[in-house]
Design brief:
The chain has twelve helices and eleven strands. By secondary structure, the chain is of the alpha/beta class. The strands form three sheets. It has a five-stranded mixed β-sheet. The chain has a four-stranded mixed β-sheet with strand order 8-5-9-11. Strand 1, helix 2 and strand 2 form a beta-alpha-beta unit. The protein binds D-xylonic acid.
Length: 335
């Protein structure tokens, strides 16, 4: 008899917990857009995120990852998030600069020397502060993912010195820091959305581009680019964002699920990206790319030529953000 009562109590308690869950999690379908192909570090991390969210909501919230820029370029998706027509996306912080000028601080050439510094600064107080600037503009930033250190590819010639870039038509992201940086280096810089890049390279509308090794592999740029120059000229973060309009309709429990899954996806994505990056160079050589390192003396010249760009970045992000980021880098470097 006692056992029966105890069991009945347990069943009632479980039912209550179930009821609370049903209330907390409404059936929802979330469109999570991204620019790269499904078989990329971006795609893999979106899938991990989807699994985590579905697990935590008992399948109530379904994340539909949509890659290949099928929902639009980074800037188009940002507008869809602001308008509430799309729930989530991941893309470059660089393409957000038109909406949140402070994001340009992450485009500072040679800001980070290694990924440890990047993680510490992006996940630290100043990274949070810059991320928070998205909210009044209609987006909620969840976490930074790693795109990676950017390197130069082109179809014209090996770049051994800055002058070799002279007549290279180089695609850059739609962002003034990148445009000014590559103009300062003497290249013929052309801003283009990533979604148009492969075709532009294939048709020789542009001769080159710059992106981390992983992307050169996943987007098959090796099919249309012969030369790769290791420059590591800037570390590029990605950022996972949510439509603020949609976010405001979620229960606290749903918000927590998304936040927790985002952190898990970040840790997974960074690890995956780093593992892939260590193998990518050999793979690209195997695919026939001719790889060279930009000599240290030329990297120094690059830094000198880009010093003027830094002054412009400090101006557009505001001295306070500029100083805070540089202080955070110095602190991370000291550790
Ligand atoms: C993908 C882009 C890409 C970026 C670029 O949507 O545009 O070159 O590096 O990763 O965000």
């Amino acid at each position: 008899m006692r056992i029966r009562f105890a069991l009945a109590g347990l069943v009632a308690a479980l039912a209550a917990a179930g009821a609370a869950q049903a209330q907390d999690f409404k059936p929802r379908i979330v469109r999570f857009g991204y620019g790269l192909v499904d078989n990329s570090n971006q795609g893999r991390a979106v899938r991990l995120f989807a699994q985590e969210v579905e697990k935590a909501t008992g399948g109530k919230m379904k994340i539909r990852g949509i890659g290949n820029a099928s929902l639009g370029s980074d800037t188009q998706m940002q507008q869809a998030l602001i308008g509430g027509a799309q729930e989530m996306m991941v893309g470059s912080t660089a393409t957000l600069v038109g909406i949140v000028p402070e994001m340009a601080v992450w485009d500072t050439p040679f800001l980070f020397n290694n990924v440890k510094e990047a993680d510490a600064v992006l996940d630290g107080p100043v990274g949070e502060k810059v991320k928070a600037k998205l909210e009044p503009k209609g987006m909620v930033g969840l976490v930074y993912w790693e795109n990676g250190f950017r390197n130069l590819t082109n179809s014209k010639r090996p770049v051994n010195k800055l002058e070799d870039m002279g007549d290279i038509k180089l695609r850059v992201m739609q962002n003034n820091v990148f445009l000014d940086s590559f103009k300062a280096l003497g290249a013929n810089a052309v801003p283009l959305p990533f979604s148009e890049l492969f075709t532009a390279l294939e048709t020789r509308a542009v001769d080159g581009q710059e992106n981390p090794f992983n992307t050169v592999v996943s987007s098959k740029f090796y099919e249309v680019q012969k030369y790769l120059t290791v420059t590591n000229h800037v570390y590029s973060p990605w950022i996972v964002t949510v439509s603020k309009k949609w976010w405001d309709t979620l229960t606290p429990a749903e918000k927590k699920v998304l936040q927790d899954a985002a952190v898990k996806s970040r840790d997974f994505e960074r690890k995956d990206t780093r593992e892939e990056a260590t193998k990518a160079l050999a793979e690209l050589k195997g695919k026939g790319m001719q790889v060279n390192e930009l000599p240290a003396s030329e990297v120094n010249r690059m830094r000198e030529k880009l010093a003027g760009v830094n002054v412009g970045i400090a101006k557009s992000v505001g001295q306070e953000t500029w100083d805070a980021v540089n202080a955070a880098v110095a602190q991370a470097r000291g550790k």
